[in-house]
Amino acid sequence: MTHPGELLKQNNLYAGKEMGQNFLSNPATAQMIVDYTGICKENRVLEVGPGLGALTLPLARAAGRVTAVEKDRRIIPLLESELEAADISNVTIINKNILKTDIREIAGDSKLVVMGNLPYNISSQILFKLVKVRSVVDRAFLMFQKELAVRLLASPGGRDYSRLSAVVQYAAKISHVANIRPNSFFPRPDVDSTVLRFDFFDIPPGMDEDKETLLFEVIKAAFSKRRKTLNNSMTGGELGLKKSEAREALERAGIDPVRRAETLVIDEFISLAHAVWAMGDHGG
């Protein structure tokens, strides 16, 4: 693999700051990540943002098929030449924004393993998308800036526990894989990165897609004014609840209305969503 700095320089290109591009440049780190995943020839892999191929090459050698979705069309010819030089032919490159990509269509009748070094500015949006299409995703191994990884792993009750924590922890078991130092990237970022593993759950009993959509709206509303009590944060907004209705829903769910969103465990959010659902056609 050619070093990203050299490859870009040879082609009069640069890492796009607006796209949050920090290319993985250490082949040993890339191989370590792929080894950890346990990917084999039976697996179909979706790689988000392959960049210049640091992960793509070892992934393609391990997997049966890789679909790589890359937004930056400038670097696709460079990626193609790296794959060709390595005599790799089982990678399909799609020039598209992952947020506008039909992941179910890519999966077809198989389940995907999703991999990617995610740009910081759209990491949360990508996770929300994966949660929604998780019926076609078996597991994911994703790299984030360390501070976002801390939020994803955070337990209820702390400052780092957020809407993102609650939604993703509802949908997946999250585990820590590795911390990656800045010197493994080009250009070198200012912070450490963290690789996390996501093992996605099926929709639980008593839930369906409509109720799950409402659950995510309830979590969003609860965290919309996180310094306020749940009775206040649940009032108005997208849920359209009156203060008396918010209080009634909270009491039906057995939740003290003066608590705050960051104190609720996932099961309490689910109970609250069921209570809101039972009161009318909110989100249904």
Report on this model:
The structure is a single chain. This protein is of the alpha/beta class and 284 residues long. The chain has helices spanning 4-10, 27-37, 56-62, 76-85, 103-107, 123-132, 146-153, 163-171, 209-224, 230-233, 243-252, 266-279, and strands at 23-24, 44-48, 65-70, 91-95, 112-117, 137-145, 172-180, 185-186, 193-200. The strands form two sheets. A seven-stranded mixed sheet has the order 4-3-2-5-6-9-7, with helices on both faces. The chain has a two-stranded antiparallel sheet with strand order 1-8. Helix 4 links the parallel strand 3 (65-70) and strand 4 (91-95). The longest helix is centred in the last third of the chain and has 16 residues, at 209-224. The protein is elongated and about 65 Å long. The relative contact order is 0.11. The model has no long low-confidence stretch (mean pLDDT 91).
Number of helices: 12
Rg, Å, rounded:
21 Å
Unreliable stretches, pLDDT < 50, 5 or more residues? Answer: none
Cα-to-Cα separation, first versus last residue: 51 Å
- How confident is the prediction overall: mean pLDDT? 91
Give helix and strand order, one letter per element, not per position: HEHEHEHEHEHEHHEEEHHHH
The general outline is elongated
Helix content: 25-40%
Q: What share of the residues does DSSP label as strand, in percent?
A: 15-25%
Total number of strands? 9
Strand order of the largest sheet: 4-3-2-5-6-9-7
